[in-house]
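Hi F.,

I've been meaning to write this up properly since the lab meeting, where we talked about keeping a consistent format for the predictions we share between groups. The idea is simple: the sequence comes first, exactly as it goes in, then the structure tokens exactly as they come out, then a line or two of notes. No screenshots and no reformatting. I'm using this chain as the first example so we have something concrete to point to.
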Amino acid sequence: MQTRVIPPAEGAYQYPLLIKRLLMSGRRYEKTREIVYRDQLRYSYLTLGERIARLANVLTEAGVRAGDTVAVMDWDSHRYLECMFAVPMIGAVIHTINVRLSPEQILFTMNHADDKFVLVNSDFIGLYNGIAGHLKTVEKTLLLTDGPDKSADLPGLIGEYEQLLEAASPVYDFPDFDENSVATTFYTTGTTGNPKGVYFTHRQLVLHTLTEAAVVGSVDSTRLLGTNDVYMPITPMFHVHAWGIPYAATMMGIKQVYPGRYEPDMLVQLWQREKVTFSHCVPTILQMLLNCKAAADLDFKGWKIIIGGSALNRALYQAAKARGIQLTAAYGMSETCPLISCAHLNEELLDSGDDECITYRIKAGVPVPLVETAIVDTQGNFLPADGQTQGELVLRAPWLTMGYYREPQKGAELWQGGWLHTGDVATLDAMGVIDIRDRIKDVIKTGGEWVSSLELEDLISRHAAIREVAVVGIPDPQWGERPFALLVLHEGQALSAAELKEHLKPFVELGHINKWAIPSQIALVTEIPKTSVGKLDKKRIRVEILEWQAANSTFLSTL
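Output, unedited:
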């Protein structure tokens, strides 16, 4: 194709898309608006800019150079927000460490990422010192603490965060550089092997931020976040940049509330005191919050929450709505920065009634601007978007990770055929709505039929006695696999496998599921295993169920 390319005028400024650009507008819109940290600290957007400059000076004077990797081990805090800007703005790469991984996995990620400088919260001193002797590239550490003790036994310690910032200049001339420079990295855990490093450039993060801000602020049926809202993340900042919202909130000049370590009662107190109107989290965290002591009898009217990471079922949606919370489903992955789609109700759906609207509010939603989607079969052939045909969801967007750090073969598998492969089974309909049916590895094959564990979890969760559910397939000599359900019941409730079968029979009669999908075994438990980011850990669940069966556990209920 012959296209026309006109060279820029002599002296024209070549504007790179850098994270520093996101910092400009917030101070213009609302320079006195606050950044709040728990019940300990609050300051204005003008101070935020000064603190980012001070941190940049501290890091530069400590020897951090463009291209170096700076790791952060902290809870969600104002410090984390400052690092998310200052580190990439000096040309370095911020490594957001998942502090909930095992020490061995954290050690692997730090060595794999070539971390040079580490900011360590005092809560993690013991953890850090336990692996410090095996770190290969770390040269210096910096202490983060909320308490009065500003000293610590950390190897290579240069000082305490606040003391160093206080002594540093509040002015820093952040340079221009290539917008394709890597800005962030973190590690995603799979079912096997070591965690994999994903990375994102300045250009990708800026485009993601602009699109995310447009979607949450402009689409009427999902309008969630505007300049007068108050934002509090309930998704860890080490996990895909807290879904990218801190960048968008800072660009928009929105009041931000950082809760530190997630403690349900503290979250509720912050919501009340700071008048929080917008958050995001995974379903299990929302359930924990709704069931905590501080939340008892509270009306959360006006709180808008994006649910991602795991499927949003109808029961949780309705339970939250009864407490005044408006839930909206969204979809993404670590590899996608993460936003791919968000629930959207068009005029046709808005006229269709509440039940149909709920159906579409809890689906993965419509792809956001600049995202392309398709579904493919196991041979990579494209399948029709008819709302019925299932295949693997594949993606294209300008902010998807270009591979896995130092793992070219796995990166090539991720991008087979020029599309990013999600590992999710989905359908697409004529409106473009993505309906995630299951993870490929979690689909249950029983008696020659495919059963979606997500759909089964949604239907089971509608039983009034059930607070939480996880369904997995376990080996069966006759049927290949059979669904097995782990259930957490509401306090004072009881349920048998036979009663669960009676609950599911109407859904079989209506054609939502086939009769083979009804679990023949259930386990009543007090807690369901979760991953480090609060998702259901189905790999661990399958292992534990098999161990329980081998031990002939007495609490298994069988039809």
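Notes:
Residues 553-559 have pLDDT under 50 and may be disordered.
The radius of gyration is 24 Å.

If this format works for you, I'll send the rest the same way.

G.
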